[in-house]
Amino acid sequence: MNIRDFEYLVALAEHKHFRKAAEACFVSQPTLSGQIKKLEDELGSPLLERSSRRVLFTDSGLQLIEQAKTILREVKVFKEMAKEQTGEMSGPMNIGFIPTVGPYLLPKIVPAIKEQFGELELFLHEAQTHQLVQQLEDGKLDCLVLASVEETAPFKEIEVYEEPMSIAVPCDHEWASLAELDMLELNGKTVLALGDGHCLRDQALGFCFAAGAKDDERFKATSLETLRNMVAAGAGITLLPELSLPKEKQKDGVCYIKAVNPIPTRSIVLAYRPGSPLRNRFEQLAEFIQSLL
Description:
Number of domains: 3
Order of helices and strands: HHHHEHEHEEEEHEHEEEEH
Oligomer: single chain
CATH class of the largest domain: Alpha Beta
Radius of gyration: 23 Å
CATH topology of the largest domain: D-Maltodextrin-Binding Protein, domain 2
Shape: elongated
Strand content: 15-25%
């Protein structure tokens, strides 16, 4: 058996479909199926229930999957330790971003990172916080750039940016001409928010609820751009993080007002596994992103 066999086994456990697992491993379905069967023969124990039309693992198969995941994580740490010996910012780095950060932060930092660290090969992944956290735990990602929340507490966090939020209103709104707005003015108002699963939803609504506002339960956006377009259409008001704001105070039917008392903020951090030997690289990367922002 070899490391690749463990990768096939774990991929099959995650996708529960031979074709999808094969695609994830960049091999043909017969190749993956053949290697799984070869592994079973070598172990002398069935890993799958062959009589089922679905991918169902035997009890011994389920136990071996967890061990395979552990082995793959250790192999990754071994490779990371070897990379760290060079002390250079080079080679592949898999970084996860949440949807309310990635589209706005990446254009600001990726060109500069490539110029500063020419030997660093970036692989960028976008997903919601709970998905990124799981991928970081499983060793599929090296680090995350996201808002610090309870789910990221088990990881080491390097603060990158304290990001304020502004109030977004339609340009014909009574507040549109204001330079800033006391959050208490939201008392009794209804605000638009992202849907469940977005950590920014809870963060923004926390400030709104504290001010006495309520959530518009008739609508939950899938992205910040959907929220922005709903505001432009006159459907309501919302809070938007600074990185997503245009340079202009008013643009495309939306007016942005600085929120005060308190200033609603979220902490953008670079998170990584406590035992990762690439700590020095993450610190360099976080410091460089800080300098750009």
